[in-house]
Structure formats: C-alpha cells, structure tokens
Amino acid sequence: MSALKKRSDCPISCSLDVWGDKWSLLIVRDLMFSKQCTYGDFLKSEEKIATNILASRLLMLEENGIITKQNHPDSKAKVLYKLTRKGIDLLPVLIEINLWAEKYSDIPETQKLILKEVKKDKEVYIKSQIEELSKEII
Fold first, then answer.
1. Could you tell me if residue 58 is inside a domain?
2. What does DSSP say about strands 67-71 and 79-83: parallel, antiparallel, or unpaired?
3. pLDDT (tens digit per residue) in 30-86
4. Is 106 part of a structural domain of the chain?
5. Helix (H) or strand (E) holding 67
6. Containing structural domain, residue 37
7. 4 within domain boundaries
8. d(CA 19, CA 30)
C-alpha cells in the first residue's frame, strides 16, 4: 500500500483521504449492490465517470485495501473488483448517507423501500447485509 499523505490526524479527515471523493463512494456503492463489477460495469453507471478518473479511483481504493481485483472467470482480458472486509465495513456509512439524503432530497422509490427496511431495525439490517457481502470475500 502506498503511503497516504495525511492532512491531519483527525479521523474524519483521514477517512476522507481514502474514500471521501464522490467517485470513490460511488464505486463502493456499486460494489455493495452488485457484489462484483468489471471496469466496464463501472463505466455504465448513471453518473458517467471518465475512464481516467475511474482508473485512478480503482487504484487508490485497491492500494488502501477497500477493494481487491481478481481474475475474471470468463475472460482473461477482464478483472473483477470486489469489496474487502475494510470496504464492507463502509456499509453503515453509506446507510447513514442514504438516510440523510432521504430527509433532505427526493430519492427513488426503490431506495425508499430499502430505507423502510433499514428503519425497522438498523442494526439487524446492517448485520445481515454485512454477512451477505462477506460471503463474497475470498
């Protein structure tokens, strides 16, 4: 892992250095919902990330232990990106961001349904999702 230059010792600042830009969190989001993605899958996302930004963010997330890349079982030309345990542990952060967004923004009905489940028992929901995502870790 390459040494990351810290702006300060503040835990929020240090965390933002790893996953705090919008593209990195969207990559993590895609992996949370899809469990694995190829480079092309990320390019197809609604947000239309540029290839140079995608390559940079994937490398940074990999160097920081948030994602891993593995050989694609069907194509030697492709790799699969997956979340690591460290990446999966970002699930509660993403849930809180979604709850905040629901409060202050219009969000899709599909997200509202997920958040309805979250609100029934957040701890149980998070635990079950982490268990499900953890099945994908090799």
1. yes
2. antiparallel
3. 999 887 889 999 999 999 999 999 999 999 999 999 999 998 888 888 999 999 999
4. yes
5. strand 67-71
6. 11-134
7. no
8. 14
